[in-house]
Amino acid sequence: MQKNIPVRRIHLKTRYIIAELVILALILAVTCLVYLTGGTNYAFSHLMYLPIILSACYLGIKEAAAAALLAGLAVGPLMPQNVASGLMQPAVNWMVRLSVFVTIGITSALFFRRIKAYKKAETDRAYINIITGYPNIGKLNVDLDELLDRETPFSIIGFRVVNISGINQNISYDIGVCVIVKALEMLSRLSGKTVYSIDTNEFAVILPGMSIADAKSLGEAFLNKTLEPFLIDRIEIRLLINGCVVYCPLQTSDSYQLIKKMKMTLDRATGKIGIYVFDDEMEIRSKNQSELIPQLLNAIQNDELSLVYQPKVSLTGEGDRSVEALLRWNHPTRGQLGPGEFLKTAEEAGIIREITKIVIKKAIGQKEHWKLAGTPVNIAINISPKDLDNNSVISYIAEILEDSRLDLSLLEIELTERGIMENQEIIIPFFEHLRQRGIRIALDDYGTGYNSLVNMFRIPLDYIKIDKFLIDHVLDHTYNLIIEAIINVAHKMDRKVIAEGVEKKEQLDALRQLGCDYIQGYYLSKPLPPDEVMRFYGEGENRQERAKKG
Ligand code: C2E
Ligand code: CA
Ligand code: CA
Fold first, then answer.
1. Is 131 exposed, middle or buried (0-12, 13-18, 19+ CB in 10 A)?
2. What count of Cα atoms within 13 Å lies in the side-chain half-sphere of residue 45?
3. Domains in the chain, CATH or no CATH each
4. pLDDT in tens, 448-506
5. Residue 501 to residue 448: CA distance in whole angstroms
6. I need a labelling partner for 20 at 20 to 30 A (CA). Which of 39, 54, 273, 325 fits?
7. Residue ranges with strand state E in 367-508
8. Measured at the alpha carbon of residue 144, what is the angle toward residues 143 and 149, in degrees to the nearest 5?
């Protein structure tokens, strides 16, 4: 499907007119030839079959009959049988020839129509998604090309079901397909248009003449409808869907580019439920990012990735020394880069798993080093949701767990709610296994994602890390109440609470009053290189004390 150069397409109607002109020209040419070669006595009038069959093939029955009639008349009553002697044809001659022409025109047109119908049925079959029974990406491509040919403005909305693998693996594949088909039916009813099933969990609808704003609200209306769970075999299934709108012809003139932009927007929207509109900035960012990928691969090989460690401090007096490992890239020309500048690209390019393995290895090494130096420190590692997409990181961790020489009791894993929601089926047994080996689990960035209290119950966890966004507002009455509620629920369920991004003493005081267990943030310490961590703890526990006393 790759098309690098946009193809100049000839308008369908123009093509039709050209075919008609070619046929007329051929009839005229054969007529002249018959006359110039001496009349119908010679065999050249049989050449008329050529335009007749061509029009049967390219234009249709009516056009073939008309071409046959015209051809029959052109070499008919006015065409001499012998030009030199001026002998005209007997009427029966040209009338029989004319009816043979018409018969051949009509029968060959019928024959071509049958062949075309047969071919169409075959192509139609090729254009159906065999799993859902809806038109597939090939058909979308063809229909988009046709709209682009006609230069009709249109919007296209793409949707992606983000929790399909959870449904397939937790419930059943058949039910997964069934629920997607129901969503497709719902979208088809709502939009009144053809719905294309581009992938098992992706579908799209083309809306000719519809503006971006209208397409966005239609997409949102569909998402609202899908918030209601689908009932299949008495099982309630909820789909998490995100969508995007791309408008044409403003943003592209090629169907391949259009589908690419749609998929790119869906990739960007991962993790957020809603309808996103494609913007050209996104494309520029994506280009910059693709340049980053080979550099990142080099960084892995040249050991340019390192960890800094941000201390967490207990407000209750209990608890050990504890830090969070945060990734840094010591870029050869750009200096030290934070994860915000490369992690997303690493996730999209599928390199994240290799990076996570490096992080785990370095963190375990550092933990051992501190332990041997007589200052054991807990280390928390961040795991990306993408790490769980296939088994690579899990089996790597499992391998580490097998290694009985390693003391993993001081290790913690931080994962966001999104990571948990997208990988529910593997998360619970995985976390249970880790906790049995003494590894503690933290739910990261709490308060920014799904914010589900239910997850706090269902998932085996040790810590809830309240996101900096909520902590920034802890002095505001409403947010204070929310944070208090989170802390109370967490404590009732035997989870400890860590406040992230604490920058001011007033925030720390407020958090202590609310009963928060740990704090982390620039107020206590920025992320530090390993030797400075020792200094942090070495400067007596005075900072810890400062935190405890306020
Ligand atoms: P996070 O896990 O929520 O980490 C906290 C981030 O907030 C860190 O940014 C930290 O430097 C910053 N921070 C801590 N205290 C304060 C504060 O008081 N004020 C402000 N303004 N910021 C504070 P960093 O190191 O840039 O990391 C950003 C995110 O990148 C992390 O957010 C985490 O999601 C991700 N990340 C970092 N290291 C890794 C890693 O090794 N693996 C994976 N998968 N993700 C990582
Ligand atoms: Ca974290
Ligand atoms: Ca966090």
1. middle
2. 26
3. 12-126 (no CATH), 137-278 (3.30.70.270), 304-328+348-549 (3.20.20.450)
4. 655 567 666 778 899 999 999 899 999 999 889 999 999 999 999 999 999 999 999 99
5. 14
6. 39
7. 378-382, 411-416, 440-446, 463-466, 496-499
8. 95
Q: Ligand 3 centroid vs 356 CA: distance in angstroms?
A: 16
Q: Can you tell me which atom of ligand 1 is nearest the CA of 381?
A: 41
How confident is the model at residue 8, as a pLDDT? 44
pTM equals 0.57
Ligand 1 is surrounded, with C-beta below 6 A, by 310, 326-327, 338-340, 343, 356, 359, 382-384, 414, 444-445, 500-503, 521-522, 527
Q: Which tokens belong to 109?
A: 């047109």
| Closest Cα to atom 7 of ligand 1 | 501
Residues of the chain with pLDDT under 50: 1-8, 540
Ligand 1 center from residue 326 Cα (angstroms): 6
Closest residue by Cα to atom 37, ligand 1, is 326
- Give the per-residue pLDDT at 61: 94
Distance CA 417, CA 435 (A): 18
